[in-house]
Amino acid sequence: MVRAFPTIRRRLVEIPAGLAEVPPLLARILAARGMSGAEELDLSLNRLPHPRQFGGLEQAVALLLQARREHWRVCVVGDYDADGATATAVMVKGLQQLGFVRPDYLVPDRFEYGYGLSPAIVDLARERYQPYLLITVDNGIASIDGVAAARAAGLRVLITDHHLPGDTLPDADAILNPRLCDEGFPAANLAGVGVAFYVLMALQSALELRGRVVDLLDLVALGTVADVVVLDGANRILVEQGLRRLRAGQGSPGVRALLRVAGRDPARVVAADLGFAAGPRLNAAGRLSDMSHGIECLLAESDAEAERHAQELDTINRERRGIEQGMREAAMAEVARLTGPTPPALCLHGDDWHEGVVGILASRVKEALNRPVIAFAPARQQGLLKGSGRSIPGLHLRDVLDAVATGHPGLLQKFGGHAMAAGLTLERRHLAEFTSAFQAAVAAQADEDVFLDVIDTDGELGELDITLANAELLSHRFPWGQGFPPPRFDGVFEVLNHRVVGERHLKLTLGLPAAGAAVDGIFFNAPVADLPTRIQRVEGVYRLEVNEFRGQRNPQLLFEYLQVV
């Protein structure tokens, strides 16, 4: 039942006149992603949608101006993922830069308190910090009871969030959420850290200060990429500006340290390094330990302090990988026992699985099967399960869970999330009932072709185009990510040499006869036991990337799918 080689669908469109000045290879790729004009190539900050277009921002700024003027004690309430951690660091640092006494911060322990501003978190904040103003980042839009508890205790509340609101909004002093804006606001896909940055930009403008919060853009870039939000025009600008600061030797010591412990050079950082190197190490703290470890890394003011925190996070991430490997083996063994056609969705459960790692597990199984997957682990509260799900393009996971909750009242204790990722809590005894309801809801909402194993590519890449210059161009000209996928190509190649490295990765030397050259290729996690002894030709889907080894930089084909032909 493991995913086979997919059907290839090429994104080939006519290049619009507005991209005529762009190198032809890049123009072809951008046109396939909907770009049509030269103005979209400009990723400067002055092209960000202006804060005045963000509904609710005036009330938020007025509240913060009063807090600054009257010296209110402030506590930032964050979330335990990378978006929440970066948003917390951005808000703490930004307010301090804009004249506030350094705010306190609090991130709920996911295992004890769960997600969001709950009455228990309000009590904890009051006990520890005695704040007068609570500012949520990356959470709060569904915290009806928590905001009510804060207001009853005489606290003021500012909510900054980007999650979908429910039918009822909390009774906060101000709420800032792009999902509440009119459709005309062109930055509807901001991550939580992006919303926090917009608050600070508007506050800086109101204070008639210049150029301070831009120092936080590397944190904004990290949180935006790690949260896998759609890289629309606004998010591409935020990410690109953060990357440029890092490449220029600027940015926070914490982000630079996270990149270095992952073996990435900040001077050559790309968006994928934030998503696959820095982000997982930051997330590991919230998955297995306490996200305050990650936030302290981001708040570090010296390289030495940041390095200590980053090394600690790297150690936690190694532990996370070991736990994940055992869970993945158990999950795939469970999948292998399934008979008949692949169901429209899967629910997997392990009595010894770790609650903080089930999201990664769901993602891995989803990638292997091209099906939405929810993985469950026992919660700390007896009799409950915590589930984390990942979806596939064309299927909105939170909407599916909403349909289940509507059709089966009382089945879910709570749920929330996005199109591609969501979480939920239910009673262990209801797992079978939920699995059936979830699969039925997926089948009802899925289009006929959503489960077809099709992968989009940018067509074949001519042998003369497989160069280091093009690999550099495609890596660094734009930040690629969710909704703006990195360039991938397909082709058939002659194999000059091949070997297995690291026990499960296939290293290839591929001939380019038209160019009179050869190029290296790598296919990670290859089914090495099923490979023939001699391989003469392969067909694959790949990305053209730069491989740096012992000071030498060369083009390399990084295969996402590969089969012997």
TrEMBL record:
SUPFAM superfamilies linked: DHH phosphoesterases
Domain DHHA1, residue spans: 350-443
Residues annotated as domain DDH: 73-224
Stretches assigned to the RecJ OB domain: 457-560
One Gene Ontology molecular-function label: exonuclease activity
Keywords attached to this entry: Exonuclease, Hydrolase, Nuclease
Gene3D superfamilies: 3.10.310.30, 3.90.1640.30
NCBIfam families for the chain: recJ
Family of this protein: Belongs to the RecJ family.
Protein name as it appears in the record: Single-stranded-DNA-specific exonuclease RecJ
Organism annotation: Alloalcanivorax balearicus MACL04
